[in-house]
Amino acid sequence: MPEEITTLKNVLVTGGAGYIGSHVVFSLLQTRRYKVISIDNHHNSHSVALDRVAELAKRDLPTNASELDIASTVIDQHKCDLTQPEQIRSVFEKYGKGGIWGVIHIAAYKSVGESTEIPVTYYLNNVSATIYLLQIMDEFDCRRIVYSSSATVYGTPPIIPIPETTRLQADSPYGKTKVMSETIIDDLCHADQRWRAISLRYFNPAGAHPSGYIGEDPRGRPGNLLPLLAQMAVGRVKDPVLKVFGNDYPTPDGTCVRDYLHVMDLASGHLLALEALTSDSNIFGTSGAHYKAYNLGKGRGMSVLQIVEAMRKATGFNYKTEIIGRRRGDVPDLTADPTLAEKELGFKAPQDLETMCRDLWNWQTKNPTGGPIHRTLLAMHHLK
């Protein structure tokens, strides 16, 4: 019989109300082993997302749920700016020294294009915030971190699919903030062997929770392809034509290729990484420093035009496309080699592109103008 759990581990998630954060928080709550503390400044997210996550978790409780089970569905939400150390410290002070078991650090600005226009803002928000967080974690004896990195750290990679041993040579300021933050965490783990850290290099998260109750709801015009296509189909983005940046890349149809994985599969990867930070984990070997980086992807690339076709099937919307010039910072092919994460963490990304598009469209049609505006749109009995 599994050992009975008598206390919940406190886990802090930065950017918990965001697209990836909310699905990661849901996966943590599903285990009924963690108490989630979320900090988010709502720059690109809405607090209602976590209200919905808590509702989903409560719905999934067994009829004979224990007090501990019920407690695990309550999220401790804090509005907090990671570039303000005193705000971070106030959250840690609530739990005291050793009170927070580990951190999943997701919060960051994440637009490649925008980062080329306001690079200093990106370095301040993504790198300085990470340094402040690490300093305060150390102050409060919290030395386990799962870091949300990105495939952009590889720049234009020499080998496809991309192994983790590829040199880090980001092309955009956004990607460089991820390389810098990974380097800082790696250096810290080499300097102080009490630290344990895993960087997760995401490829392209897509889809939504199958209930349609949480999903990607960016403020303003979406910067990523799939949410843009969903908002075009639902009439929220009025552009009649999708502009495709270049069709002369060395790929099967000339358009950029990306490795898409379902956001629920990505969320499961965070849970596996967090569980690999325990003191009895053997993933770090005997090298001394407890730091590793893993790719999270499917290992299969899809082109821009293939994605458009998949969304056409899911939505029934007749997308019109126009090929325009290449965009600065775009890389022809970013396809993961996920072998290491599969072997060492037990990571799997089984859900296919059709499922991602279907779940995204389910979310978008139930929330045509975004989650917060329709916060009472979905009664719980409408959930699948």
TrEMBL record:
<comment type="subunit">
    <text>Homodimer.</text>
</comment>
<comment type="pathway">
    <text>Carbohydrate metabolism; hexose metabolism.</text>
</comment>
<comment type="function">
    <text>Mutarotase converts alpha-aldose to the beta-anomer. It is active on D-glucose, L-arabinose, D-xylose, D-galactose, maltose and lactose.</text>
</comment>
<dbReference type="GO" id="GO:0006012">
    <property type="term" value="P:galactose metabolic process"/>
</dbReference>
<keyword id="KW-0520">NAD</keyword>
<comment type="similarity">
    <text>Belongs to the NAD(P)-dependent epimerase/dehydratase family.</text>
</comment>
<dbReference type="InterPro" id="IPR005886">
    <property type="entry name" value="UDP_G4E"/>
</dbReference>
<dbReference type="InterPro" id="IPR036291">
    <property type="entry name" value="NAD(P)-bd_dom_sf"/>
</dbReference>
<comment type="pathway">
    <text>Carbohydrate metabolism; galactose metabolism.</text>
</comment>
<feature type="domain" description="NAD(P)-binding">
    <location>
        <begin position="12"/>
        <end position="359"/>
    </location>
</feature>
<comment type="similarity">
    <text>In the C-terminal section; belongs to the aldose epimerase family.</text>
</comment>
<dbReference type="GO" id="GO:0005829">
    <property type="term" value="C:cytosol"/>
</dbReference>
<dbReference type="InterPro" id="IPR016040">
    <property type="entry name" value="NAD(P)-bd_dom"/>
</dbReference>
<keyword id="KW-0119">Carbohydrate metabolism</keyword>
<dbReference type="GO" id="GO:0003978">
    <property type="term" value="F:UDP-glucose 4-epimerase activity"/>
</dbReference>
<protein>
    <recommendedName>
        <fullName>UDP-glucose 4-epimerase</fullName>
        <ecNumber>5.1.3.2</ecNumber>
    </recommendedName>
</protein>
<keyword id="KW-0413">Isomerase</keyword>
<dbReference type="Pfam" id="PF16363">
    <property type="entry name" value="GDP_Man_Dehyd"/>
</dbReference>
